[in-house]
Write a structure and sequence with these properties.
The strands form 3 sheets. Strands 5-4-6-7-11-12-3-13 form an 8-stranded mixed beta sheet, with helices on both faces. A hairpin with a 5-residue loop joins strand 4 and strand 5. With 387 residues, the chain is of the alpha+beta class.
């Protein structure tokens, strides 16, 4: 019987996508993270799932630039920049591919606010892919759909976490000239089950169904993100991230997938052609740039990424930056540490109502403010030493 990774599994779903018999199904484990479950009655032990697992073979994919170029960037259209978590660079790449008659894949909320990958074929659909999700997405059949589009001769832009991009590359098993990939500087992926429990608790509190979510809204400014939840009865909850138990658990590293604490893909160059993130502390290297509306941090990791970046030069404001300066970005090369009590946290998740659980285990505001201040001080000290 095939032996897939256990705690090192990233949930990329490459094994389920590549299985010729459909013998592998991603199912939630006891912490709510998707893991492959093999139907022994169907499995022929061909070994293809093990062969294509990116954790086991650690293939690096299409990146071919040892020292990627780095840029500060934002979209020239203020509406696109305003609707994006950072500077809107992703939209520039996506619109370029759509303009060629291609398709874009990325993470979006479904009608129940679960996060799933989906295919977008026009500009109207692109809005669902904008904005941070902070929950691990279910890839589903999108690897297969992307391959089908490539075989049709279409350009494809596939965005996701680094482990998902590595999973796509492993699933495909070959290079496609028309495939362009974008990954993210990732803190880690929290439990989808915890997210569902949190939303259920908010619906009980407001006695109404959730109809809208923004995990990092820029209504105040980019450097002071707000979480916003809208309800069918017209109510809205909007507050700093420090007031959300879900965000506290995420940023404290308490609720992340086990593989995120030793991410195999946090090394340069990243697996995708282009890597995106927030350009925090940009004022230290580019003090004159306007920051309040958000600035993207862009890594160009491959020759294909370079061509795509050049193709959108008319849509983006860009400023080349120093690779050594941004290497100390808090999540670029370093995985989150396993916090004390993580196992006890998940063991107690179902023992009491979520509201009570959150009060006991996910203390808001004070703890997160102290953590945020500590991280920022550390980041600024590291960056100042490089100036």
């Amino acid at each position: 019987m095939a032996k897939l990774p256990d705690k090192d599994c990233t949930g990329c779903e490459a094994c389920a996508s590549v299985c010729p018999e459909g013998a592998i199904t991603p199912r939630p484990d006891h912490e709510g993270f998707l893991r492959p479950v093999i139907d022994e009655g169907i499995c022929t032990e061909c070994g293809l799932c093990v062969e294509r697992c990116p954790v086991l073979d650690e293939k690096r994919g299409s990146t071919d630039v040892e020292n990627p170029k780095v840029y500060a960037a934002w979209h020239n259209d203020p509406k696109i920049r305003g609707a994006s978590t950072s500077g809107g660079a992703f939209s520039a790449f996506a619109l370029e591919i759509l303009g060629r008659g291609g398709v874009v894949f990325g993470a979006a909320f479904d009608e129940e606010f679960r996060v799933c990958h989906r295919e977008v074929t026009d500009e109207d659909g692109l809005a669902s892919l904008r904005g941070s999700k902070y929950i691990q997405s279910h890839v589903g059949n999108t690897f297969k759909q992307a391959k089908h589009r490539l075989e049709q001769g279409k350009d494809v832009l596939f965005s996701g976490t680094s482990c998902q991009i590595a999973g796509l590359q492993a699933y495909l098993g070959t290079q496609y000239e028309r495939l362009f990939t974008v990954d993210l500087i990732c803190h880690g992926t929290p439990s989808p089950e915890l997210w569902r429990l949190y939303l259920d608790a908010m619906e009980r509190k407001y006695r109404s169904k959730v109809v809208g979510v923004s995990l990092r809204d820029k209504r105040i400014r980019w450097q002071t993100p707000t979480m916003v939840i809208s309800f069918a009865n017209g109510s809205e909850w909007a507050a700093p991230l420090t007031d959300s138990p879900f965000q506290v658990g995420f940023w404290n590293g308490l609720t992340l997938r086990p593989s995120c604490y030793a991410c195999r893909f946090k090394r340069l160059p990243y697996p995708a052609d282009i890597t995106l993130g927030d350009f925090w502390a940009v004022e230290l290297i580019h003090p004159k740039l306007e920051r309040d509306a958000g600035i993207s941090l862009v890594f160009v990791n491959s020759e294909k990424g370079k061509k795509l970046f050049e193709a959108v030069s008319g849509s983006l404001f860009t400023k080349e930056s120093d690779l050594e300066f941004v290497k100390d970005h808090s999540h670029l090369l370093h995985s989150a540490s396993v916090p004390p009590g993580r196992e006890d946290f998940f063991a107690g998740l179902r023992e009491m109502p979520f509201e009570e659980f959150a009060r006991r285990k996910l203390k808001t505001r004070g703890a997160l403010l102290r953590l945020a201040a500590k991280v920022r001080r550390s980041l600024l000290c590291c960056m100042k030493s490089l100036r």
